[in-house]
From TrEMBL:
DNA-binding region(s), chain positions: 54-73
Source species taxonomy: Bacteria, Bacillati, Actinomycetota, Actinomycetes, Mycobacteriales
UniProt KW keywords: DNA-binding, Transcription, Transcription regulation
Name of the molecule in the record: TetR/AcrR family transcriptional regulator
Highest taxon in the source lineage: Bacteria
Length: 219
């Protein structure tokens, strides 16, 4: 079945998400000072966004001192970058884990999209800050932006380079298509979060667009 041939049957459930990547994302009890500060940054962003969060807010929520904060991070921005990096790494690893490489093209794409949405739904405030506030930080954020994009490009290439994809005539995704796809995911996600629309609403259009990019064209 191709992208335009009708609704897709839901694939087998890929299984639950793995345990969260660090104690601070589930329970701060026993976590290191750094992890507690990252957890506090996550909570503050959920409440007020990155721009309106202060170091004072972070240390208050983390129940630690400014001195402890500056022993771990140079400034609020460095803490934000660290939070984005560890969360992004977790999301990508989980998406790769949850896609059944032996399933049909349609099922693999839907599993990947659904896993992305599920991960993004956990922290909508952080997701929106990542998409909207990170670029506003200018050149200081460029390394984080570049590393993030490269990680997603690598994921897209990897998911389209399996034996199942090759047998179906799928060519591994090139860099240009991967960048195009990633930009579309980001904008769909930001639009849903900003409007208060459930992120699940992007699953169908994102799946259809992804299939259009990977499904071989009929001659």
């Amino acid at each position: 079945m191709t992208a335009g041939s009708g609704p897709l049957a839901p694939p087998a459930t890929p299984g639950p998400f793995a345990p969260l990547p660090a104690p601070w994302l589930s329970s701060p009890a026993g976590a290191s000072t750094r992890d507690r500060l990252l957890a506090a940054m996550l909570e503050c962003i959920a409440e007020a966004g990155y721009r309106d969060t202060t170091v004072a807010d972070i240390v208050r929520v983390a129940r630690t001192s400014r001195r402890s904060f500056y022993q771990e991070f140079a400034d609020k921005q460095s803490c934000f970058f660290a939070l984005l990096t560890v969360t992004n790494e977790f999301m990508i690893a989980e998406i790769a884990r949850r896609v059944d490489a032996e399933a049909s093209i349609e099922d693999q794409v839907r599993q990947a999209v659904s896993s992305y949405v599920e991960a993004s739904e956990r922290y909508p405030g952080l997701t929106l800050s990542w998409i909207r506030e990170l670029p506003a930080l200018g050149s200081a954020a460029q390394a984080v932006k570049d590393e993030t994009m490269e990680a997603w490009i690598e994921l897209f290439v990897g998911l389209t380079s399996t034996p199942t994809m090759a047998a179906a005539g799928v060519v591994p995704m090139d860099r240009q298509r991967a960048i195009f796809l990633w930009g579309g995911f980001r904008e769909l996600t930001a639009g849903a979060v900003e409007s208060g629309t459930p992120l699940a609403s992007i699953i169908e259009p994102a799946t259809a667009a992804s299939l259009a990019l990977v499904t071989p064209r009929s001659e």
